[in-house]
Amino acid sequence: MPEPLIGARLERFALPNGLRVVLAPDPAVPVAAVAVLYDVGIRSEPPGRTGFAHLFEHLMFQGSAKVPKLAHARYVQTSGGSFNGSTHLDYTVYHETLPGNALERGLFLEADRMRGPRITEANLRNQVDVVAEEINTNVTNRAYGGFPWLHLPPLLFDSFANTHDGYGSQVDLESATVAEAEAFFERYYAPANAVLCVAGGIDVGETVELVTRHFGDVPARAVPVRPDFAEPPLTGPRRGESHDRLAPLPAFAAGWRVPDPIGELDAYLAHHLLADLLAGGEPARLVRRLVTDENLVTDVSAGLGLMGDALAVRGPGAFVVSGFLPPGGDVDKVVRVVDEELARIAADGPDEDELTRLRTMARSRLLRELDPLIGRAKLLGVFEQQRGDAGLLAGLATRYASITADEIAAAAAALCGRHRALAEILPGRA
Questions:
Q1: Is the dihedral of CA 377, 319, 41, 307 positive or negative?
Q2: Which position among 217, 238, 370, 382 has the lowest Cβ density within 10 Å, counted as fewest Cβ atoms?
Q3: What does the pLDDT look like over 322-361, one tens digit per residue?
Q4: Which keywords describe this protein according to UniProt (predicted)?
């Protein structure tokens, strides 16, 4: 049976222009969430244009065919709604949450910018400045800024697609042109390269009519063939360090390659539970040993993915263990403890109490992600885009619950058998 938060009924269809649509009615809520996901992300950026996918996300808020600059925000907020957008490794998403009676307004706004954003020299230069300030705020002038998602990939992977800085270099951003932005839109923002998901208190028949009315006449365009972003295996361990003048403590992030999240989903999800076994709360093994018993770190975490997006990637991903050390801490000793715990799990697996806790944590995390209506709409859109069927999300909690102790042990054994990348942050200037 589908999870209650996903809903017992999903409607999936495609318009003649190729736009895929998912409707997830939930009569228990009086609001509607609209999410449009485009099949373009950080991995899609070409050399010399680092940060372009994120920059273009900003441009999509600068007005569209019939909507002047700043009007999109005004129309949503005066309806009592909220909006945002975000750029990820494998997709870019734009979304609104609105009262149910303002659904058509949200659909109109998204359809209008799918027809064409207002790409002007003034808008481009303005948003380059906005992104530069965002980099200053989130990376340059923040302790541990961008760690580890900007530091670990160049060690763990080899290709430009998987290693470059998704925020972008200032040189690349400032040299971007209007012509390049227009070409980016034509290439990646076609209806057939997008998924529209509408969730919440909607009438399915009425919503189908509204979607067709507003999106049906967006001109169809060819879509690019998605490249293969796969990486060859690491031939040895890798290590790198950087200095952070604002960091008060040393930090580390150890990363391993993980199974294909699309083709090897069960093995991939077993790594997700392995992360909780290592560092998911006070009873977790690394928390007990590294923090409580041996005082080797002040904090430790483990997880799947570099950007907190374990369930929303389809390219090469990472299993990451990271933490902060006290002054003078020994990162090599910390990593040895991590290796010892992985080897112990590979040999014995989790016990029954641990397995029950891990399954409960996985289900709770999934339900927390699906509880906000916009979170539900986005994840349904991701599953439709990346796996070809949003309905697969309905069985995910059951899939987590079926993972065995042996599968978690196998995940730990796989990490023991793979080469590792280690990124360090050292306080102070080089």
A1: positive
A2: 217
A3: 999 999 999 999 999 999 999 999 999 999 999 999 999 9
A4: Hydrolase, Metalloprotease, Protease, Zinc
